[in-house]
Fold this sequence. Notes:
alpha+beta
Amino acid sequence: MRDFLTFQAMKENKFEFNYKVFESIDELPEDLRFLLNEARQVTENAYAPYSNFQVGAVGRLVNGEIVSGSNQENASFPVGLCAERVLLATASSLFPKIPIRTMAVSYKSENVKSDHPISPCGICRQTLQEYEERVEHPMQLILGGMTGPVYVIDSASRLLPLAFTSEELR
Ligand code: THU
């Protein structure tokens, strides 16, 4: 009997993507450093009394406008919104036709160290993918904690391989 591990597929595909790793915020180019610093500050605006995990997201639009978001929780837990989606909704409402060029995300917490990057959750990845598709522009991501290394990803959609997209409904 052939077991799963030895089974020879007709064809095997591979997904991979490159992203940049900076040792700290100090290594970043000035414009990206500015955005990550803003994201760190915006964690203060989070409403996260249940998780005590405060996330800040700041985006720079292609026209130079800066928009921010932070996570907003609720006693009914699934109602809560991540910082990334609050930012996307805010930017889309204020500047519906203007793509976000770059988004920085940071976090802080009483419970865990903020010394490494976090990356967007699954629902946010799906939302980011469709945002990029809609505005027809890649969104660069800057991910970093309050200290530690920083990841720079050239397009948010890279985080969602084999995505289910609006294409499927046409
Ligand atoms: N959260 C975000 O806002 N962004 C992320 O990338 C990960 C998680 C929020 C959701 C929830 O309010 C808290 O962080 C803990 O999961």
